[in-house]
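Thread: HTH deoR-type domain-containing protein, structure

OP (GT): Posting the sequence first so everyone is looking at the same thing. Length is 304 residues per the record. Can we get the structure tokens written out before standup tomorrow? I want them in the notebook alongside the other entries.
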Amino acid sequence: MTRSAGHDTLADRLTLILCRLNQGHTLHPADLADEFAVSVRTIQRDLSQRLGQLGDLIERTEDGGYRMAPQYFGKLTLTDLERFAALTGLSGLYPVFDDNFVRELLDSRLESVLQVRGHSYEALDSAQQQRFRQVEAATRERQLIGFRYRKPEGEKTYEALHPYRLVNHTGIWYLMALDGSTLKSFAFSRISALLVSPERFEPEPALTARLDAEDGIWLNEQKTEVVLKVSRDAAGYFLRRKLVPAQEIVRHLEDGSLLVSSRVAHPNQILPIVRYWVPNVRIVSPEGWQKDLKRELATYVSQA
């Protein structure tokens, strides 16, 4: 059997291998090497090193094959399998990428605890890594937490927070937590003196749904509609993928340009994207945002 286009990447290969193991198949390195048109050594590395991080989930057979332990058959969803396979190329994104952490990521319960938005990442020191693991566990186990938080005006102490989610937004880790009746985001690197309480809380479905719908880390419930005009030269990029929060194509104009709408909780959710696409994108409304952007750019050019 020869390799198809769907086998072209490491993530694809590992996903297919995991899917078959999850279905109860016993796999042999020589057969996989022939199918994927790679060396037996490459497949052995996939199975023993990369998939070896799954610990007792995968076991060896007497004839040199690999299979999933029977008690785990069918327990992992395709989303779980794809998540692990994709992480093989993004290990630096997670500050504590060890065997236990990988196993936790494959636990479907964690799908609502950790989210990654963007590809770069910040490096956390050893103390921050330890706090990250503690907060991740508290979030999963629904335990109250408290900590000191560094602000420009000085430190502030927070108590009895309900941790809902850890989000990596454009490379920076944030904690989404309920403080009283207000949902807030905290830059993780500014957290210190963490305390985890044995007291537990019950997550509110409405808040979970709200976080699922968020495109960023600004948690203002009042959203502003922003309408952009995208030139013909850039239209294809906006048609292929969503480049702004809550993106919708409002209209295709005769000259090939687009009107695109977005809803944001803070100007910084969209202004960096508009700056990147200048001169192919301009803000139609709110009109004041376009004027402010033009003044900002004029000042920048005059100082260059």
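GT: Both are above now. Quick notes for whoever picks this up: Residues 224-303 form a domain with the Alpha-Beta Plaits fold (CATH 3.30.70). The chain has ten helices and twelve strands.
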